[in-house]
Amino acid sequence: MKLSAPVHRLKRKAKLLSRQDDIPLHAALDRVAAGEGFATWSLLSAKLSAMPPAARLYPQLAPGDLVLVGARPGHGKTLFSLGLAIEAMKSGNRAAFFTLEYTEKDVAGRFRAIGSDIALFDGLFAFDSSDTISAGYIAEKLADAPRGTLAVVDYLQLLDQRRENPDLMTQIRALKAFAQEKGPILVFVSQIDRSYDSASKPCPDIADIRLPNPLDISLFSKACFLHDGEVRFQSVN
């Protein structure tokens, strides 16, 4: 399902249309939905709700995006990020997975866990578990990748583990410049601070990202957070 714009922009368009044409908001939403090929807004919403979360987010991504995916351990952030990689490959793009946490066998198992098979994407998917993963290493490996290649870094904080690497802020700035020049989509799986309390809010957000060292979160263009099956997309800027 490919929309002409993200849902929040379509809703904004409907609100503007409602004011301009002096019509009820529901009528404006239906008119916008008709432009997307749906008889009503409720049908468009139902179609979106039936899609896996990764399939809903992927059409909103663009070459050059830096995306944060955050959750506490065991809440599906790696599966979600691999889901984005699968959506990219279904669209004919390449995907890569940089990790110090998983083996290639582990990743194949996670493909199966989300109803896919890594063998279906032979030649499109690259797995990398080098001990030297850093911004420079990632940029080097993706230097010749076509625009729209989606690379998952599992996880953000691993870039900050080796003392010989530049600080995290410098690395993310370098990757942002690289992404804007070369056009990959870079997805960073992120740890959530232990202070996050689901009793106070049902899903973590940008304020809950675990950052041992300073990082300007506005360097990212989009963010997604998961907790107990709930998925929330959040604007960074």
List keywords for this structure.
single chain; 237 residues; Rossmann fold; seven-stranded mixed β-sheet; 8 helices; 16% strand; globular
Summarize, please.
37% of the residues lie in helices and 16% in strands. By secondary structure, the protein is α/β, with parallel strands linked by helices. The chain has two domains: 7-50; 53-235, Rossmann fold.
Structural classification: alpha/beta
Strand content: 15-25%
The strand line-up of the biggest sheet is: 3-2-4-5-1-6-7
CATH architecture type of the largest domain? 3-Layer(aba) Sandwich
Low-pLDDT runs of 5+ residues are none
Count the strands? 7
CATH hierarchy, class of the largest domain: Alpha Beta
Number of helices: 8
CATH superfamily of the largest domain: P-loop containing nucleotide triphosphate hydrolases
Structure description:
The chain is globular. 37% of the residues lie in helices and 16% in strands. It contains eight helices and seven strands. Strand 4, helix 8 and strand 5 form a beta-alpha-beta unit. The longest helix is centred in the first third of the chain and has 15 residues. The chain folds into two domains: 44 residues; 183 residues, Rossmann fold (3-Layer(aba) Sandwich), CATH 3.40.50. A seven-stranded mixed beta sheet has the order 3-2-4-5-1-6-7. With 237 residues, the protein is α/β, with parallel strands linked by helices.
SSE blueprint:
Elements: H1 7-21, H2 25-35, H3 41-50, H4 53-57, E1 66-70, H5 77-90, E2 95-99, H6 104-113, E3 125-128, H7 135-141, E4 150-154, H8 168-182, E5 185-190, E6 222-227, E7 230-235
Parallel strand pairs: 1-5, 1-6, 2-3, 2-4, 4-5
Antiparallel strand pairs: 6-7
